[in-house]
Queue: 4 jobs
Job 1
Amino acid sequence: MAAVLRVPTVLRPAMGNQSALEVEGATIGEVLARLTETYPSARAQLLNEDGSLHRFLNVYVNDDDVRYLGGLDAPVSDRDEITLLPAVAGGSH
Amino acid sequence: MLRLRYGHRQAMVAAAIRALPNEGCGLLVGRADEVVEIVPSPNVADSARVYEIDPRVLLRTFRDVETRGLEVIGVFHSHTHSAAYPSPTDVAQAPDPSWHYVLVSLAEKESDVRSFRILNGTITEEDLALDHDQGHGSPDRR
């Protein structure tokens, strides 16, 4: 099944400078695993060393944050739109 | 240089005050170096020392700007008890080298608003060009 992945500007250099690409996988975990096989240099921006979802990456399936859909187990269906957006965070300390 | 209207500056300061005692935050929407709109966000870190833009606001804003031919050009957040200068945390977590990073300090009686670029860990302050909303003459530069 193919879903569309929308890539933010800051991640494009690690993903062939594409703004959107077709991805395969039944879950977000499968999609990201295949993505990092194709674009190994993107791995550090997508996943932690232990393979969990990077703390400072927001992943959405259509309008929903995957953290509320099971994280890497979040299901992906044909024609879903997956959006990656780096978290925007910081602080005074 | 970051160009914005005086009302945008006021909107950022107001968001910072509303968020007290926590840090306030939001996104800058516009074109390149010009702010068109301020999008305040809840601070989902719910903290006086750190901030995080609400992921729902992030997604909504990125989708919205695409349909309007605009871009997210930066982020603002407040420091409640320290200067308007990026902290090591701000630098480490700056997501996009093309963005403008605006700091609002509420540490003194008068709020202080300053803008920075953060590239490969290096902080560079940039001028703020404030256009007054009523269109009085040239922008003030500071």
Note: The longest strand of chain A covers residues 81-86.
Job 2
Amino acid sequence: MTTSYPVATQGDPPVAVIALSGQIDRSALAALNEAYDTVASSSTQSVLLDFHDVDYINSTGIALIVGILGRARAENRSVLATGLTEHYQHIFAITRLSDFIAVYPDVSSALSGATSS
Amino acid sequence: MNVHDESNWASKVERLEVSDELAHAGFNIAGKRVAGAQQGFGKLWQRRYSIDLGTTVTPEQVVADWKQRFATYWPDGATFHVALTGLQPGTVSPIAIASGAPGLTVSTGILVLYMDDISFTFMCPEGHMFAGWITFGAEEDAIGATVADVKILIRTSDPIYELGWPVMKGKEDAFWSATLVNLAKDHGITDVPVEETTSCVDRKRLWHNWTNVRHNSGLRSAWHTATTPFRSLRT
């Protein structure tokens, strides 16, 4: 089955929301890059990674997220995250991803965060 | 989300602690924080080295052996110190690497960030040549052969290491190729080429991290070596 992650634009200023799902591991590479390509072709200044429907992230998945973070920062986009369980918030802290990706409890607070940042 | 993988990850540590048995080798990493790719300085590189091990071993067997005998696969000139407890998530292991300068060994180390049956990941500490992650793994390819690989996502840590990147890149190529060849040999496989791919994920340097130079493991190792006679006099 081919994985794809829907991208929607929400909020004002507009934020590109990538709805991630399933397992974020090496199998997610193509879908994640495809989703970010959609974001890159838009004028949004922020991208929100929505992890609500994700059930597993391994270290390769973390590396994929870092790759997205690198691409976004190269294009002066901020990266936000929502839907992370306490465990994965902890992983973001260990890996120090949370130094660069603001984590919010839900989409609406993330959109508000994007507005205020 | 489920939590079946929680034990695969290291616990959060603010500062690295080196076990007493390895303290002599870990002087440069004790008390340091880990450094992800965004805490580094140079361009962000994604690199992969891979080797085809054929169909006689499974990915799980390869990775189990790799974890157990990790240090023995390293080429000459580099030492990976492993505590008696072996490699586990959260393990801090000192590393000593010949610098190329006479008498100078660069002391640094790693934190074992993640481990599962088919992969394990190290994270670099402050002061290491690189900031980021390195993942060792194996998987079956489309025809059922086991392919072992080393995947690296790094920036150089500071401006000094960034200046040395053209040289270090070549050394990295030789180092990880030799490691994979040794891994293959240990599984009875010889004369198999190592493939390498490199892509630049972010060409921007993180100039605000130039102060990382204060942690530079090369400079600190040189100082440690130079002052060894004086420390001996004091003890």
Note: The interface with chain A takes residues 1-6, 8-13, 33-39, 44, 46, 113-114, 116, 119-121, 123, 132-133, 135, 137, 139, 151, 153, 201-204 of chain B (CB under 8 Å).
Job 3
Amino acid sequence: MTGAPATVSLLGMAAFFALSIFALAGGRRRLATPLVYGAALALSAMLHVNAVVALVAAAPAETLSLPMGLPWIGVHFRFDALAAFFVAVVNLGGAAASLYAIGYGRSETWPMRVLPLFPAFLASMNLVVLADDAFTFLVAWECMSLASWGLVVAHHRTPDNLRAGYVYILMASFGTFALLLAFGLLAGPFGNYAFDAMRVNHPAPLIANLALALVLIGTGSKAGLVPLHVWLPLAHPAAPSHVSALMSGVMTKVAIYAFVRVVFDLLGPPAWWWGIVVILPGAASAVIGILSALLEQDLKRVLAYSTIENVGFIFVGLGLALAFRSNGLVAMSVLALTAALFHVLNHALLKSLLFFGSGAVLTSTGIRSLEGLGGLIHRMPVTAVAVLAGCMGISALPPFNAFVSEWLTFQAILLSPALPQWGLKLIVPAAGALLALAVALAAACFVRIFGIAFLGRPRSDAGAQAQETDGFSRMAMILLAALCLGAGILPGFVIDGIGPAVQAVAGGQMPHQAQVAWLSIVPIAQSRSSYNGLLVFFFIAASALMSVALIHLLASRNTRRVPAWDCGFVDPNPALQYTAVSFAQPIRRVFATTLFMAREQIAMPPPGDAAPARLRVRLRDLIWDTFYVPIGSAVGIASERLNVLQFLTIRRYLSLVFLALIILLAVLAIWR
Amino acid sequence: MHGLNFDVAHLLAGSLVLVSFMMLYQDRLYALLNVFALHAVVLSASVAWQAYIHDAPHLYITAAIALLFKAIVIPIALHRMIVRLGIHREIEAVGSIGPTMLAGIGLVGLSMAVMLRVTADSDLLAREDLAFALAVLLLGLLIMVTRRNAVSQVVGFMSLENGLVLAATGARGMPLVVEISVAFSVLIAFIVIGIFLFRIRERFDTVDVQALDRFRGERR
């Protein structure tokens, strides 16, 4: 049995790459789309089962090395419990996306631009998780960035998609660069790029601090941590919807894996303030992400912003785990880390589901803006129910899964008085308050999405002619919704499943939850708190059924004739319904006036003029304006100055090279 | 015996640097070519001596290659090229000799300062060799920078490559395959540059690289 999971995973990845080449060769055929996605589904499902089996059996970590890559390094892989958990998440998302794409991919205008990259993207995400040396890791990481970039610009004729791709590849390169430097620091003067060596040789505190900052920048830019998130709401929606689901649901999780792997596994014992460094951007991401989502009208961009919120949530959990760990509070650290990893799984499921829903809406109506949608629950009932489940889940309503992980995170936050440092004692509850705000805003945000897009009446002709999506897409959405509900009802099993992964990096795991009576979960102690998803589910189901029954029993079946009371009368014009902007207005006025410099301007026509009055809302992205615009203009100025260098004579170029060499040698002579 | 070995190797490597200095101030092309041939002869002697004291027969082949190509074939070919181009009477403005020589001395000092410190724990012979090789390399670059004629830039490049060969043989253990491939790549570079020279000549009626700059319409 030993030796199996890693080998199976590697073979699976090789098969993915082979599939990519196959798609490249035969992608023009009509049959290629279902064939490629079907094969990707089978492979992902196999890898997922493989990883789950290894995780449940708590198989010992195993390593594999191949004689490829750089000659003196080779390529190392390691399949331990943490990797197994993330492989499971990646391939669950991959399998769902492949299943969805069997149907969704048929509407693709340019299958050749998507088909070859899709399996390569899945394979490189798997590769990142399994890599056991910095070289393999970075190569896989770049493959992942490039494959996803190719998918982002697949529809490059759509306006703004090329810009999205440009910003994305820029930020991705920047992140990789930061990671490269971080690994360079960790490898030390002797260049031990294997993770095994890094695990043993802990760097000096200063080096470790620098590496932490670099890793936070590198992985944070991939995961979408504020203020490195700017590319995410541009790039994720630009890709085809099943790829958006993968990027938002899975690729951000791979970035989180990288953070956990480096900071918890390789970096050595944390300093107490590392927690703060991680918690602060996490909390900021949560609030800013969900506020931006509320102010956005484009359905897919709303979902992308919500990803930023959830990534922030996960990073707060990781920061808490670091804070507890630095003080030797292993049990609490384990709780926080379990909550974070649980949320990783939940968000992967929920965000995939929601992006599938948005894709279904997009293919059947062609509209991404909420303002053109409405009443879809009548035209697309299955999609509507699945999206409703996703919205309830991501708003952290109880019988669903995200409630459990967010509840666990709050349980960990409530343990912060146990921390000895005052900085942490003050900051952790503040971050908790921000998270609570984010959760409430998330609920408002998803009420808004569901209410505007699926309830009411259609706001455009295209929206009125929507058709229910195809069978494969529906199957994928229902599957994910069922998984979300299942993980919410029986969280104990999920927590036990995550246990070995937590054990692998945190040195402990939560008490086994499956043995707790009545399938409750008890994170700390029975006297403190416990939650029973099954009971909540039965209570909600029973009370809902009972109310339905009561209404049916008691309500009169007689037709009632009432005078047309105008306030209850539906106005014939659907434009008079509540709009997405008007729904967000109170929240915008309260929160966004300072944070986004939201300004409202009313242009009233002069008396006697029949022109309509106009309300104009201006928003400014302060992060973009303060961080990115100055950097961009500085780069512009510098490149203009350096432009002269393009037109020198040959001798000048030679002299420049010569001078550079001399200066470097002189530095070497003086410095040594 | 060790003392003699070391002294002769030192002498040969040192004379290579000296010949590099001689190349610096040759303002006639024929003279430059002759000094370059001398440079290659000294290199070949130095490599052969290394082969003798390290008892590494394959270095003899390197020495032979250096002697054959760099001391005979390439100078003769360049010679004929100069005749065909009709530039044998041209006198090149080297810039004033004094500052160039001073810069060269500075470069030798720099390479000593760098190499002797960096290679503090390797054996004495290799250290001296590497330091001299770096000096030859830098002087070759200096020749390329101070010349305007394409032919003399080629010569500068070749002498730079001689420095590389010296370093490689001094480092002991460079396989023959690498040396042969280096020799061939230099030969090919030489051929390519030769062809380009004629093309430039056809187009612009001169091999003064300033003409290229003028053609691009660049201010200088």
Note: The radius of gyration of chain B is 18 Å.
Job 4
Amino acid sequence: MMPETPSKRQLLQGNEAIAHGALAAGCRFFAGYPITPASEISEELATLMPRSGGTFIQMEDEIASMGAIIGASLAGVKAMTATSGPGFSLIQENLGYACAAEVPCVVVNVMRGGPSTGLATSPAQGDVQMARWGTHGDHPIIVLAVSTVSDCFTTTIKAFNLSEQFRVPVIILSDEIVAHTRECVELPAPEEVYIINRIRPSVPPEWYKPYEGDSRGIPAMASFGDGYRHHITGLVHDDHGFPTENPGEILNFHQRLTQKITRGFPEIMMTRSYRLEDAEVAIIAYGSVARSAMRAVEEARQQGIRAGLLQLITLFPFPRSHVTPVLKQCRAVLVPEMNMGQISREVQRVNQSFCTVVKHNRVDGQVITPDELSTRLIKM
Amino acid sequence: MSVSTQTIRHEYLRHNKKFPHVWCPGCGNGIVMAALLRAIYRMELSKDEVVLASGIGCSGRMPTYLDFNTLHTTHGRALTFATGVKLANPALNVVVVMGDGDATAIGGNHFIHAARRNLNLTAIIINNSIYGMTGGQYSPTTPFGARSTTSVYGHIEQAFSIAELAVTAGASFVARSTVYHAELLDTLIEQAMHKQGFAVVEVISNCHVQYGRRNQLGGAVDMLKSYKENAITVARAAQLTAEQLEGKTTIGVLTDRQLPVSTEEYEKIRLRAEQS
């Protein structure tokens, strides 16, 4: 049966659009645990997955959800989970496993106020650095951010594609505003969706080395049951997947994990430019804040300020090659976030005295408005 | 059986893996591994259709040595990974090997929910009453009063009875053996793997290095002898009082019941969803 993907205009909530995007990308396994403000993703997929020949399961906690999607992916099925702050803390253990064992999977974190139980129904962007560094040890990961309902659909497909292409978990950071905003979106027909699937081994089973990278450092991936019997472990392993304590093999393991992402920078790093051509001041924003930022740029332009916006879709690996030209071009850059300054520290890190980087932070559970941003732009 | 265990073992051991294994001489894990292999051999399963998953600990290393689709997961989480594998490809025969700490401390929540959920999985829990790999700390099955590296003055908590816990949590099939009763163990593992639904086999095993040594239980052979002396069948146990059962280990099939298997129930959900 064809996936439940509508090919017409639909009024959808951000969370629902993520569910539709996952199905369009070929996701056929979802495991989740109820949590505000992410629950609608589970609810939508509990309805749609069985109609699409896929599987939905509600697990006993988020640790289990993460384990289950790794298991499903190892059996050859594209898999996703969705959660929010406290659950995002719980998935970190097995997320590290997916990084180490190079298991493609997508994790949605609909950010709410933190720390701890925090502000369960309020928007925030406090999990940005955690998405990059939450699980222990050096590890590769890709983090994407969504700002509109349309983004929720297209970025989820992109997340699956990157995950399959690079054999790496991909995190989608949404927030409570994007999750619960309803917008009219044009969803493509299934045949119009560009899909990337993991590379399967082409060698005979006896030649197969599950962790031998190709020219880009990405190993071909067999599924359990398809004749390529192999070992998967969270221990540091050699090309055969077996645990190793050999320093040379340990080094190879780490270098390949890092380099497969480094080599993919051009494909992984995504941003959107808005009115940057002649900009003297710019906003660098992501998530729902980018929506206010776009409006603020318009308001500033009406006041005669040459303002522009660089919207980050990829947060990690940090899109330095996209950010640096903006820093060089502008005299000042404003980085508004619903946290105490998590991407601004990345911007400051890559800013080699090119311009002034100004933070704008809000953690009171309220949205950052266009007015407060245009006021800052006019003063910059 | 005409084929020797040694022949069977060599059929299923991974010859491209660098041995030796990590287990101490005399460890019960090898007996459990051989029993599992004999059961798989008898069932005539192809290596490609078997998935062997494990958690962390001494038992967790078993899949590394065996030529199946093998999955060494995180501590306590093996059942969650196995749940995903089984639901994604129900044709696979998924066996999960865990230790007592792995399955009932850090993985306790997953264990009871896997039993309640009743997927078609086989869980083998090797219960040696101790965290062996990390150096002999007390586990959820360390008896009251026992010594360990974290209960040097005697243990003050009560132990879980794993098989009874599985029965209460709703598993379709629950059995217990000891590593002394190796032939019974073969049969129980085979029954568990045939069972439609969540099947648990608890195996009482010896960690003479970390547990026996600190509790004056002797070496591996002494501990196996004690299993022989203290084991009592389910049928015999039913005739005894609680006092008479003190210190005994009940072996055999504790529960074998027909319950809806969620892998099959989900197929019905797909039909209902398509019609709605």
Note: Chain A has two domains: 9-192, 273-379.
